[in-house]
Amino acid sequence: MRVIALLIALALVAVACGRPAVQERQAQTQEVVMPDKLTTTDGKSIAYTYYPGAKGQPGAILLHQLRRDRHDYDTFAPQLKSAGYNVISIDVRGHGESTGNWELFSESDFRKVGLDIAAAKGFLQKNGAGKGLLLIGASFSANAVINHAAQDRDVTAVIAISPGLDFRGIKPLEGIENAPNATLLVAAEDDAYSAESVRTLYSKNTDVETKIYAEGGHGYAMFGQTTLAKDILAWLKNNP
Asked: In this structure, are residues 156 and 133 in contact, taking their beta carbons and an 8 Å threshold?
């Protein structure tokens, strides 16, 4: 009986000691990554992951490219959070865990990505993000963030990775002239279409900045093949 009682006592001690560590790990996880879903004004469900910074810090919305999802930013989003942003990465409608199937989308459907951005912006504001809003998009969503920023004066900075002149009916020539001065257009020479698109967009608004790598591929691939993440963080220090 004494042996059994001793074992029970040791088990209770282990549980008591282990519980704070488990709770601490859970708290840390919740502090960094909070997945859930938003609802847009047209009733679409948009999956997201939230990386909360300090109250009052600016917000950042990250949009992925076609055929991919928000997890493209799983490594970069925490870096952006550490740089002083409240960060939300979303599955754009038709992708990942969000409503719809992009393969069935019309050009009109793709042009509604702005509603996804608006829902993410509302979430950031509701959760304490301060003034200043950064939009980052890749490929077709690079086009989308340029056009959205032209209509939303709360957007203070834009980073468009591998934009094109027409991706799925989203044409950034419609918005580039009204883009924030803190706009960075990024491409690589081995992605000839996007590189040439960046040059064309710049010709329409020379207040924006460009970064063209010799090699790097398209969209998300550039994070692995160039110093893109480091360069974005450095650029943001001068363009908060």
From this structure: yes
Give Cα 71 distance to the centre of its chain: 9
Give the mean model confidence (pLDDT) for residues 231-240. 94
Model pLDDT, residue 150: 97
Domain count, the chain: 2
Contact 217, 189 (CB under 8 A): no
What are the CA-CA distances from residue 140 to residues 89, 111, 115 (Å)?
Answer: 16, 10, 15
Are 44 and 95 contained in the same domain? yes
Q: Are residues 70 and 118 in the same domain?
A: yes
Mean predicted lDDT score pLDDT of the chain = 89
Q: Are residues 18 and 50 in the same domain?
A: no
Q: Residue 151 belongs to what domain range?
A: 33-238
Do residues 112 and 25 share a domain? no
Burial of 239 (0-12, 13-18, 19+ CB in 10 A): middle
Residues 139 and 159: beta-carbon distance below 8 Å: no
Strand partners, 238: none
How does pLDDT run across 12-44, given as a tens digit for each residue?
444 344 433 333 333 333 445 778 999 999 999
Q: Are 27 and 41 contained in the same domain?
A: no
Q: What is the pTM of this model?
A: 0.87
Tell me: do 88 and 14 sit in the same domain.
no
- For residue 127, CA distances in Å to 37, 120, 157 come to 14, 11, 20
Q: DSSP secondary-structure letter at 207?
A: T
> Does residue 151 sit in the same domain as residue 75?
yes
